[in-house]
Every structure is written in structure tokens, then in C-alpha cells.
Automatic annotation (TrEMBL):
Keywords: Metal-binding
Record's keyword annotation contains Magnesium: no
Organism: Kroppenstedtia guangzhouensis
Metal-binding keyword on record: yes
InterPro entries assigned: DUF34/NIF3, DUF34/NIF3_sf
Protein name from the UniProt record: GTP cyclohydrolase 1 type 2 homolog
Domain of life: Bacteria
SUPFAM superfamilies xref list: NIF3 (NGG1p interacting factor 3)-like
Length: 300
């Protein structure tokens, strides 16, 4: 068992939460999604979390016996946490709210989804804790989300882009089809979202976990010599006017790029670091059992 207070302080120091301001994404999206619900989120969530939008979100029992690792707080993930977790156990996620980005071969997504109020109340009643870390984890120099992808590909980082959220790496020569097959194996996904050009000789790849579906980031990577671009998302498949506009803009860019564009799903791209780096680090440091909680469906 480890005191929650110690774990909270250690994680916040390791991820340098005090060095970052409010999370650039969730400082906007959490207020926006919860103001449409009956939940008083500023009262339900920890005071520091409502200012930083990273860190301890829900405080449970004083001692942590087990840590669960996930990406999005989907209902199946939270239901499993409630079923298996005991008082004091902690769920460590990347996102504090679910993001439905859509399936390139299926339904388009709904965007950001709040945690249902009954699930929040059940988590509180059982004395469970939730900790999330978004942007500080993305850019972390030891356990960053994009860095974990580079390591899984066997690449060497040579540069960064997209405000350090993306990394450019060099690796042994490969081709588009081989890279797609490798990505499907690494991320345990049934298919990728592919656009752009098929290439025979790829040595330099741009990698950005999560929302890499930014044309400006793609152009920056291409100027730095990237021949392929691997991200959680290539297209925005959110079923609203914003998503449809972004999709049209991306299709126009695809006609002019020379890169292979490979999407592996937002959630799967950010889950990898939990599996390859964070689980072992937490188990070694604290001697606690860490349970990986993957999503049943990565494309959603």
C-alpha cells in the first residue's frame, strides 16, 4: 500500500504539473461538456484539478493498493474499475473525458463525452481515486506518448515539431505497406486509416500521438524531411460541421502531400506508453500491482 498523498505528489512532480499552466485542451473542453449536464464539476473534482485540468481529479481512500491504467474514461473502463477496484485504488488515465473521434470504416464520433454523473457518484461512494495527465505526459522526455511510439518502431529521434508534441525519427529503411503492418501489430488494431502516397523507401517518419490531424503540423513535418506521418488521427471523423469541414480540408491537403499518412486511432496511440513504459515504472517505484485496462474497441 502507498499513501495517496505521496503518490499524488510524486506523479505531479514527475510530470512537472507546476511548470505547466492549465491544460490547453481540457481547460476548454471540460467546462464546455459539463455545463450541458446536471453535474457541478467544480464541486465534484479536486480544487487543483479544476484549475490545472491535470492531476488528481477524484480523491478516494487514503491508501492505494492497486493502480489501473487506461486512456479514456469510457463507460466500460469505469465499470471495470468499479467492479475490480477496492477502496483506495487509483485509475490513472490520459484523458479526463472520453473523445469519440470516429471510425474510418464505421460510424463517425460524437466528440468529447462527459463521464455520466451516476458513475462519478459510484466512484466516490466506493472510495476510488482518478488521476489524469494529458499535455505534460505528451511532451515528457522520458515517458512521452510520442516517444513511446518512436521506441516501438525502433527509431532514433532527430528532431521535434508541432510544439514538441511530435517527434521526427530515423529508422531502418522500410516501405509503406510494411510500416502499416508494423503499426497494426504495435497498436493491436484491425486496420489503420491510410491516406497519401505509398512509398518504397522510407527512412524518416514523423510521429505524433493523439490528435495529429493538423495540416500545419503535417506541413511542418514534411518540410523537415518526413516521408511518412504516423498519428492517432489522420482524419477528423467527428459527426458535426466542425468535423466535416476538417475532413474536407484534409482531403484537399492529401492531394498535394508526398508523405504516407497513417492513423492508428487516438486512444491506441496514447495507450501504448501506459503498456510499455508507465506500468513498469510504477511497479518498480512503488511495488504496487498495475492493471492495464485496454479499450475493447480502439476506433470509436
Amino acid at each position: 500500500m502507498v499513501l495517496l498523498e505521496r503518490l499524488e505528489q510524486d506523479l505531479s512532480k514527475f510530470f512537472r504539473l507546476n511548470d505547466f499552466g492549465p491544460d490547453p485542451a481540457f481547460s476548454r473542453f471540460i467546462p464546455a461538456v459539463y455545463e450541458k449536464t446536471d453535474l457541478d464539476w467544480k464541486r465534484e473534482f479536486e480544487p487543483e484539478f479544476t484549475e490545472r485540468f491535470n492531476g488528481l481529479m477524484i480523491r478516494g481512500g487514503v491508501e492505494v493498493g492497486k493502480i489501473f491504467l487506461a486512456v479514456f474514461p469510457t463507460e466500460p473502463i469505469l465499470e471495470r474499475f468499479l467492479e475490480e477496484g477496492k477502496r483506495g485504488d487509483l485509475l490513472f488515465m490520459h484523458h479526463p473525458i472520453t473523445m469519440e473521434c470516429g471510425d474510418p470504416r464505421g460510424d463517425w464520433g460524437r466528440g468529447f463525452i462527459p463521464i455520466p454523473t451516476p458513475l462519478i457518484r459510484s466512484i466516490r461512494e466506493k472510495g476510488l481515486s482518478i488521476y489524469t495527465c494529458h499535455h505534460p505526459l505528451d511532451v515528457h522526455r522520458e515517458v512521452g506518448t510520442s516517444l513511446a511510439i518512436v521506441e516501438a518502431l525502433g527509431g532514433n529521434v532527430i528532431d521535434s515539431f508541432f510544439n514538441e508534441c511530435g517527434l521526427i525519427c530515423e529508422l531502418d529503411e522500410t516501405d509503406t505497406d510494411s510500416l502499416i503492418q508494423q503499426a497494426e501489430e504495435i497498436f493491436d488494431i484491425p486496420y489503420v486509416d491510410f491516406e497519401g502516397q505509398k512509398r518504397e523507401n522510407i527512412r524518416r517518419i514523423a510521429v505524433v500521438a493523439g490528435c495529429g490531424d493538423k495540416i500545419s503540423a503535417m506541413k511542418e513535418a514534411e518540410k523537415k524531411g518526413a516521408q511518412a506521418y504516423l498519428s492517432g488521427e489522420i482524419h477528423c471523423h467527428i459527426d458535426n460541421e466542425y468535423g466535416r469541414t476538417r475532413y474536407r480540408e484534409m482531403m484537399a491537403y492529401i492531394r498535394e502531400t508526398s508523405m504516407s499518412l497513417i492513423g492508428v486511432s487516438h486512444a491506441a496511440s496514447e495507450y501504448l506508453v501506459k503498456k510499455t513504459r508507465i506500468k513498469g515504472w510504477l511497479e518498480h517505484r512503488y511495488g504496487l500491482e498495475c492493471v492495464l485496462v485496454p479499450q475493447v474497441k480502439w476506433w470509436m
